[in-house]
Amino acid sequence: MSSLLQPSIFEPQAAPINRYAELVEREGIAWVLRFFPSVALSPGRLRKLQAAKFARLAARGLPRAPLAELRLVCDWITWLFFYDDALCDDVAAAPDPLRRLHEAQVRMSAVLRGSPALEDDEPLVHMLAELGARTAAWAAPGFMPRFVAEVERYFQSNVWELRNLLHQLRPALPIYLKMRPFTGAAGVVFALIELIRHESLEEVRQHVVVQQLELLANNAICWANDIGSLEKELVEQNPHNLVLVLQADQGLGLDEALARAVAMQSAEEDAFDALAGSLRDYAGLSSPAVLGYVADLGSFVRGNFVWMHETMRYRARLSMRSYGSAAA
């Protein structure tokens, strides 16, 4: 079995990289080590962190972002991957895992809303408290409640995934397609794109065309990740993958399901490009702020493709699972 994504899509010129990429990558690793200092003493775990190249996803997705803005998005993306691996994956093996996940999410929501982190909180909570404060410092009035709600929708989708895993349920295709935009946390990143542009788009993002552009970009990113992570999720027996859901729901062979997923992903990207090209026909959507935001969404779709080829997260099945606790 081999990926059907065209090789040219992974070539670096398909997505230019931010000039600060190497700097924020070094700073991002140093930021992680502040919360997990023992990792610096473990060459194997440090190499794993370096090979994941989390910062390069933001650097590919936001090639024009200034340094401070890129640094914030990089750290958020790093936290999201750590949270996904170190908490969501590990908690499935804990006693009463749904309760454990709920308690952790309640605590994280509290610090994101401004409650101070406590000495005995997990490193992930301390990381989030710092990120929340940094985000709030740049936020326009009304942004933080919207942003926290987006993060909490991501948390809620984690519960859905964990319940499926605990009960060995493979989601039906219609349900999976509705839930996937939340489980990938792309909406959190899209909100951060609005933040770092320093232009409030609260009203414009309610426009049906902008919402559909966000959904198309979200699908294009998440379905590409499903295709790129297929072998990893086959090994992990994780049913939350578009290819595997198509295979089970439509009675397809694996290669046929993969081909169908690739076609679906490509169609979402084409639809995004077509709809983005029509923005000037809609009153209020031709401003530089809106055009710039949509251009950044498109950059993230392309940047995600190239990053998937650069990171070892999927090819070597890297996980941040062992970084999850203070004892890590």
Automatic annotation (TrEMBL):
Q: Give the source's domain of life in one word.
A: Bacteria
What is this protein identified as?
Terpene synthase
**Catalytic activity, EC:** 4.2.3.-
InterPro entries attached to this UniProt entry: Isoprenoid_synthase_dom_sf (IPR008949), Terpene_cyclase-like_2 (IPR034686)
The cofactors it requires, by name, are: Mg(2+)
Q: What does the record give under GO molecular function?
A: metal ion binding; terpene synthase activity
PANTHER family per record: BETA-PINACENE SYNTHASE-RELATED, TERPENE SYNTHASE
Write the record's keywords in alphabetical order, separated by commas.
Lyase, Magnesium, Metal-binding
Recorded hits in SUPFAM superfamilies, A to Z, give: Terpenoid synthases
Q: What family does this belong to? A: Belongs to the terpene synthase family.
